[in-house]
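Today's session is about reading a structure prediction critically. Students often jump straight to the picture, but the first step is always the sequence itself: look for stretches that repeat, for charged clusters, for runs of hydrophobic residues. Only then move on to the predicted structure, which in these notes is written as discrete structure tokens rather than atom positions. Here is the chain we will use throughout the hour.
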Amino acid sequence: MWTYMIRRILYAIPILIGVNTLTFLLFFIVNSPDDMARMHLGSKHVTQAEIMAWKKAEGYDKPLFYNSDKTGFVKFTDTLYATKSLKLFTFQFGISDSGRDISNDIYQRMWPSLAIAIPSLIVGLFFDITVAMLLAFFRGTYLDFTGVSICVILMSISSLFYIMGGQFIIAKLLRLVPISGYEPGIGAIKFLILPVLIGIVSGVGSGARWYRTIFLEEINKDYVRTARAKGLSEQKVFFTHILKNAMLPILTGIVAVLPLLFMGSLILESFFGIPGLGSYTIDAIRMQDFDIVRVMVFLGTVLYILGLVLTDISYVLVDPRVRLK
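Below is the predicted structure for this chain, in token form.
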């Protein structure tokens, strides 16, 4: 088993290097350091001397991959790729173009993002699986038909509708929670209730419908018919056999949302004024602070690959047959 897990971790290294290199190319070839200097200087008539001074001050005056003015191995280390991209692998994020300590910003802003994402994931997952099992248990009935129809309707509605509707009805008309804002400590709960609720409701349509499909596929398999033939009740078949075997595809689906636990929700945080990593990324894009954007893309990639590795490890623990592959 350990050999299997080590092999999966080693597979992730070239993927991370490739994504990091591709991100670097998109930033520095499509948008050159000269273009970045002009955007940050904000003047229509910027002189070349001003551009060179800004590039030198921000560390963008180096070649991309190969520095012919240096000797030895420094030809490869004194480059933009080494100073701006490779250092991310040591999690040295440095100072942004606007002069902010990126590591400190991430540490401060990750907690509001986690405060939204973790309850939304746990409660949402429990609610989606419960609804899906209920629909699968009463498959082919009016309850199943009505539930699937509601799920399709919920899937078809934009998340912006849930946000604006929740803010108008729950926050403005009923005045149960604040419309937006945030404060540290225990006082943050009143600001997080509405975003978490909207995150759960907006995802229940697609989540419950997908899990229902998984349960229906398991219901028609031979081991389920064998369990019924042995006299097991339908409830025991569901909770003892079907739910356990359905965990493999469910774990795969959870991987897709793991980066959001740390990275935050771009839309929710922006609309509700929550100072998390999602709004941090949006602000960096708006201010054209490319150092922050590169770091956030890198972290998102690391977290997604980590999720894939954890899923493979979960497969080993849940399904022993995977160890033989």
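Discussion point for the tutorial: The chain has a mean pLDDT of 80.
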